[in-house]
Structure formats: C-alpha cells, structure tokens
C-alpha cells in the first residue's frame, strides 16, 4: 500500500504544491496528512467542477501544474469544465486528476457507486483523458507520477491517476468523543416530524435514519434515502412539496447544501408553504473521513433569508432542538442544527435496495394524496 506521507513527499519534490477537490474516503488519510502540511496550497472545494475552476486559475496565474482530487462520482460533476474549459480544443489547461475508483467492477460496494464504477475508465477514454491506475508500490507510483506530469505539460491537458479502494494505507488515530451527535439530533427530529415525507441526504445521515427506524420498529416508507447524488435532496424534496399539500421535510448536510447552493435560490423563488429544510451542520464531510467544509464562515440565517426562505432558526444544543416548534415556522423554512462531527463505529447501512425504497416511498406519498 501507499503511505500518505510518501505521496506528499513525491508531490513536494516535483513542486506540485496546489491541490483542490472534494473528498472521498479512499483519500481520507492522504487528505489528513495534506492538511497538516503548510507547504501546500490546499483549497477544499464545494464541488468537483469548482475545483477544476480553481485549478485553472492557479495554472493561469503561475504556469504550474495543479492537482484536482475527486471521487469518481464527481467525475460526472466535472465533465462540463473538463470539456468546455480545460480541454485542448478550448483553453488547454494541464492538470493531474486524482480520481478514486468506487464501484470498481468485481469489488463489493454500495449501489450508488456501481454504475459510475462500471463506466469510469470508459468515461476517461471518451473525454480523451490519458490515465494510469495508481500502483501500490511507491517506486512504480513515482514513475507514474513523473510520466503523467510530463504528459500533462507536453500536451497541455488534463491527465488522471485512478486510485483503487484500499490502495492508501489507513492511519486510524484516536478520535475525540462528540458531545451532540448527528444521530442524537436525528432521533429528536424524527420524533418531532412524525409520519411525514422525509428526504434525507447522502452518506451517514440516511444510514442513521434507517437504523433509528429499525431501533424503534418503525416503517421506512415515509423516508426517501438519497444514497447518492450529493446535494440533490433539497431539489427532490422541494419538487415533492410543490405537488402535495402535506408538510415535506428535507434533512440535509452542510457539505451537500454547499455543493448545490443554487437550489436554495430556486426554492426561495418558487416557494412552498409546506417545505421545511433541515440542515445538520457539523462543518465536515463526515462520511468521507471528517474533512472540513467551509460552512464555518456561513451566516446561515442571512443566506436563507436572502434567497427567499420565510424563516431560518438555529439550534445549537439538544435542548434548543427539543424546544423548537417546527409546526410554527413560516415556510419555506430552514432549521440549522449544529452538531459535532463523528458517528458510531458500528453504523450499518440500509438493508433495502434503492428501488425498494423508491417503490415504498411512492406508495406512501400516494396514500397521503387521498
């Protein structure tokens, strides 16, 4: 396996000091090591397309080679800037893409990764992006890095290193114990919401909601677990709200909201008096290793009010959340719940398939319309 510090040292030796992207659990330990190194200009982006823009700006300003990291699911978010900005037929911007390979054929993975895993290599080939599969041997990896660096500069184009699951050695360090967890917040919220449509964001939020339903012997039919498509829960939930008179709840995360922030303006513009947007904010990408988001600089209340939400309230503690009367909020409403990052080590995953979830949820929605 590759050690994180080995990758860091190889990048330093080649003056590859700019890096931007959206994290993946495959890069977890590498990014932790990177954040502790002041020699790098590391800009954590809210979307992979944004990271491509940041990389382009860096190259234009310095004529140096940038690195953009992403999960292969994020390759879909990057197609537009890769083809209409960085491509050699447009501005011809050189860069090295570090792409993690979730859903690799023959490797067990979650349903939302399967399709992109199948087409990752084909997509790179379609885009004309030359690539290598990262070797776990550090000497061979060094050769690959040199070859791709030379290729990127010579052809003035993006190239890619594809990282298989498990290729970077884990370095698990003791974690501080959270005081107010997302799961505790969700438990309070589910009691408050009762039997109403809930659209939950990708990652551990949906996993925890599923397990809380199991814990209390409750049905899952009112929950739509958006296991992939990071940032899309709000648009899914809002469109449901526009087509029913019943209250609709979106349970989102700070990283997901940041990725598709334009959706907030759409919601504010078209409005819905039955829409409640809950954002559980732990200032991190908890599902991929706890890397920091940029939510700490946000004034959530000003943001939501600026785009047309009627009310935005913030709960900083479990007591504040328990005392909140969700039904009294002016809608569309936003509820920001501040929690600590971290989750149970034994957190499971949904035991139903996405298609089963969809069918059961649609039956529930239709029953609400009668």
Automatic annotation (TrEMBL):
Protein name listed in UniProt: Phosphonopyruvate decarboxylase
Pfam family, one: TPP_enzyme_N
Native species: Candidatus Falkowbacteria bacterium RIFOXYC2_FULL_36_12
InterPro entries: Phosphono-pyrv_decarboxylase (IPR017684), THDP-binding (IPR029061), Thiamin_PyroP_enz_TPP-bd_dom (IPR012001), TPP_dependent_decarboxylase (IPR051818), TPP_enzyme_TPP-bd (IPR011766)
Any one Gene Ontology BP term: organic phosphonate biosynthetic process
Keyword Lyase listed: yes
Gene3D superfamilies linked: 3.40.50.970
Transmembrane residue ranges: none
Keyword entries, A-Z: Decarboxylase, Lyase, Pyruvate, Thiamine pyrophosphate
Molecular function terms, GO-annotated: phosphonopyruvate decarboxylase activity; thiamine pyrophosphate binding
């Amino acid at each position: 396996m590759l050690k994180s510090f080995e990758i860091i040292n190889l990048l330093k030796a080649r003056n590859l000091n700019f890096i931007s992207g959206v994290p993946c659990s495959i890069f977890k330990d590498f990014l932790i090591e990177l954040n502790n190194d002041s020699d790098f200009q590391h800009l954590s982006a809210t979307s992979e397309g944004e990271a491509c823009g940041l990389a382009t700006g860096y190259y234009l300003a310095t004529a140096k080679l940038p690195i953009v990291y992403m999960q292969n699911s994020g390759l879909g978010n990057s197609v537009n800037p890769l083809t209409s900005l960085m491509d050699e037929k447009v501005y011809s911007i050189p860069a090295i893409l570090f792409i993690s390979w979730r859903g690799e054929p023959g490797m067990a993975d979650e349903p939302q990764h399967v399709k992109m895993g199948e087409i990752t290599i084909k997509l790179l080939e379609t885009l004309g992006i030359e690539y290598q599969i990262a070797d776990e041997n550090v000497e061979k990896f060094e050769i690959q890095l040199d070859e791709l660096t030379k290729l990127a500069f010579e052809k003035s184009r993006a190239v890619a290193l594809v990282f298989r699951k498990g290729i970077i050695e884990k370095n698990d360090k003791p974690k501080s114990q959270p005081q107010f967890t997302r799961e505790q917040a969700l438990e309070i919220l589910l009691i408050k919401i009762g039997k109403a449509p809930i659209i939950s964001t990708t990652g551990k939020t949906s996993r925890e909601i599923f397990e809380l339903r199991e814990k209390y012997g409750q049905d899952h039919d009112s929950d739509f677990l958006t296991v992939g498509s990071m940032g899309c829960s709000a648009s899914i939930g809002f469109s449901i709200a526009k087509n029913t008179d019943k209250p609709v709840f979106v349970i989102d995360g700070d990283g997901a909201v940041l990725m598709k922030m334009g959706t907030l303006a759409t919601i504010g513009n078209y409005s819905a008096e039955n829409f409640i947007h809950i954002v559980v904010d732990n200032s991190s990408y908890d599902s991929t290793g706890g890397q920091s988001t940029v939510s700490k600089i946000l004034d959530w209340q000003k943001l939501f009010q600026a785009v047309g939400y009627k009310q935005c309230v913030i709960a900083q503690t479990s007591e504040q959340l328990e005392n909140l009367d969700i039904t009294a909020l002016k809608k569309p409403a936003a509820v920001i719940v501040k929690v600590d990052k971290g989750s149970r080590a034994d957190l499971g995953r949904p035991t139903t398939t996405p298609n089963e979830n969809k069918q059961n949820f649609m039956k529930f929605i239709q029953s609400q319309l009668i």
